[in-house]
């Protein structure tokens, strides 16, 4: 077994429960607030856009929540996903470190996102909902919900951040292949979209804007619910299958990670890998270093404020306590579209505030350089988002080489880049540049945070 590369689990080892880190936190999460009254919201405040089953999961304090059999049966299409040791990358780096990655690009949609999309579609179908609205940045979430909707006979409408809509036509085609409708955001279809276009006709869009449009549609139509691909507690809950499988596979490999790494936009793939490990630590287990990697052009954890804020630009959502750059912050249109979000999951934010994780912000040229080195060693072309995790995994392996330490590194390769090749073409053509956010824009956005405490 010492020269093994892939570690597979049989289908019967797909987790039977999702892991809920709230059960192990030293203090409960900050309540979600009604923006008008500044009082904690109740289930009825969310019932217009979410089914009660997901609302219950959002506030649950149970450590384990059973995965329904129909969801688990669909998971069998790609789960358990493989754990792979990057032996060729190790050799290329000449490092004593061992590098493992959990590969979520094996799902039908090519990323980790179906882990929650299938669950959300199932619960909405059970509740009698026939249509779902959502947003997407790079398109991984939109295509995943489109896939899930096709399995449960749900109509799916996706508001795609306009700059990504233009950058990634094949993501749009994938959504349409699964039967979804894909609309560039901001659009003329919603009051929010029309208002933004009236003020900024050339707006590149943002996840915050696209969320506003999708929430508006769900709130105004009784047959439509809203689905979110990251940030919320129930989304991170569903992603915990990643880390649960990884723990068992690392045991198969006879290893225990010293460093755990995931890219972080809203927090879902990072939490999916890291939360089961953090939970084990909080219960007295091993204490690996855990790194959330974000883009330097949208450094939510690194430069944001830990405060109550809206999850969307039009202020249609409740207030969540999280690291935020301000709901009005519009990041530059760099290629890692799935990481262009102003806020971070409240649970990830709370763990950052508690010192359980650390954040690292990296520039996109270094990420693409790392992604190409990874592809030329391991054969898999990472999604632009995933290259952020690859970048820091390589940096950690080189630091181990410098120190002469045989560290064990585990990262989440959250998706492949087969629909993102234009970004790689632009990199090879020298068209990409490292993008920095506008410092004045950030200060203005943070100054507009709502008064909630």
UniProtKB/TrEMBL annotation:
Enzyme Commission number: 4.2.1.20
InterPro entries: Trp_synth_b-like, Trp_synth_b_CS, Trp_synth_beta, Trp_synth_beta/beta-like, TrpB-like_PALP, TrpB-like_PALP_sf
Highest taxon of the lineage: Bacteria
Positions of post-translational N6-(pyridoxal phosphate)lysine modification: 113
Pfam families from the UniProt entry: PALP (PF00291)
Cofactor: pyridoxal 5'-phosphate
Record keywords: Amino-acid biosynthesis, Aromatic amino acid biosynthesis, Lyase, Pyridoxal phosphate, Tryptophan biosynthesis
Enzymatic class: lyase
GO molecular function: L-serine hydro-lyase (adding indole, L-tryptophan-forming) activity; pyridoxal phosphate binding; tryptophan synthase activity
Residues in Tryptophan synthase beta chain-like PALP domain copies: 77-415
SUPFAM superfamilies from the UniProt entry: Tryptophan synthase beta subunit-like PLP-dependent enzymes (SSF53686)
Pathway annotation from the record: Amino-acid biosynthesis; L-tryptophan biosynthesis; L-tryptophan from chorismate: step 5/5
Catalytic activity: (1S,2R)-1-C-(indol-3-yl)glycerol 3-phosphate + L-serine = D-glyceraldehyde 3-phosphate + L-tryptophan + H2O
Any one annotated GO CC term: cytoplasm
Function comment: The beta subunit is responsible for the synthesis of L-tryptophan from indole and L-serine.
Family: Belongs to the TrpB family.
Subunit structure: Tetramer of two alpha and two beta chains.
Name this polypeptide is given: Tryptophan synthase beta chain
Organism: Rhodobium orientis
């Amino acid at each position: 077994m010492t020269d093994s590369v892939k570690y597979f689990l049989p289908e019967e080892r797909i987790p039977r429960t999702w892991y809920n880190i709230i059960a192990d936190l030293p203090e409960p999460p900050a309540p979600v607030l009604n923006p008008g009254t500044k009082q904690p919201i109740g289930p009825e405040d969310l019932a217009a856009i979410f089914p009660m089953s997901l609302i219950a999961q959002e506030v649950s304090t149970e450590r384990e929540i059973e995965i329904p059999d129909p969801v688990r049966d669909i998971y069998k299409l790609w789960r358990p996903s493989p754990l792979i040791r990057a032996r060729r990358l190790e050799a290329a780096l000449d490092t004593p470190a061992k590098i493992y990655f959990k590969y979520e690009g094996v799902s039908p949609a090519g990323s980790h996102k179906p882990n929650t999309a299938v669950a959300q579609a199932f619960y909405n179908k059970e509740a009698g909902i026939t249509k779902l609205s959502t947003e997407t940045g790079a398109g991984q979430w939109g295509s995943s919900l489109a896939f899930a909707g096709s399995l449960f006979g749900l109509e799916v409408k996706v508001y795609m951040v306009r700059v990504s809509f233009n950058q990634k036509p094949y993501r749009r085609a994938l959504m349409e292949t699964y039967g979804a409708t894909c609309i560039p955001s901001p659009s003329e279809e919603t009051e929010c979209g029309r208002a933004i276009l009236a003020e900024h006709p050339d707006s590149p869009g943002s996840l915050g804007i696209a969320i506003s449009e999708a929430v508006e549609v769900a709130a105004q139509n009784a047959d439509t619910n809203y689905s979110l691909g990251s940030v919320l507690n129930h989304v991170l809950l569903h992603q915990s299958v990643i880390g649960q499988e990884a723990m068992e596979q690392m045991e198969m490999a006879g290893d225990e990670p010293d460093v755990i790494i995931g890219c972080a936009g809203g927090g879902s793939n990072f939490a999916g890998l890291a939360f089961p490990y953090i939970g084990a630590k909080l219960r007295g287990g091993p204490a690996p270093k855990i790194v959330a990697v974000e883009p330097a052009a949208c450094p939510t954890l690194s430069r944001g404020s830990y405060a109550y804020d809206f999850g969307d630009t039009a202020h249609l959502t409740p207030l969540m306590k999280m690291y935020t750059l301000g709901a009005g912050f519009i990041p530059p249109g760099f290629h890692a579209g799935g990481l262009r979000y102003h806020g971070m999951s409240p649970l990830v934010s709370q763990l950052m505030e508690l010192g359980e994780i650390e954040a690292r912000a990296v520039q996109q040229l270094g990420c693409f350089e790392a992604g190409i080195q990874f592809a030329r060693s391991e054969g898999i072309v990472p999604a632009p988002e995933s290259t952020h995790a690859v970048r820091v995994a390589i940096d950690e392996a080189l630091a181990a080489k410098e120190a002469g330490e045989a560290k064990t590194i585990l990262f989440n390769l959250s998706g492949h880049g087969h629909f993102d090749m234009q970004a790689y073409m632009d990199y090879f053509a020298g068209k990409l540049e490292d993008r920095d956010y506008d410092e004045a824009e950030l200060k203005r956005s943070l100054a507009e945070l709502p008064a909630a405490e």
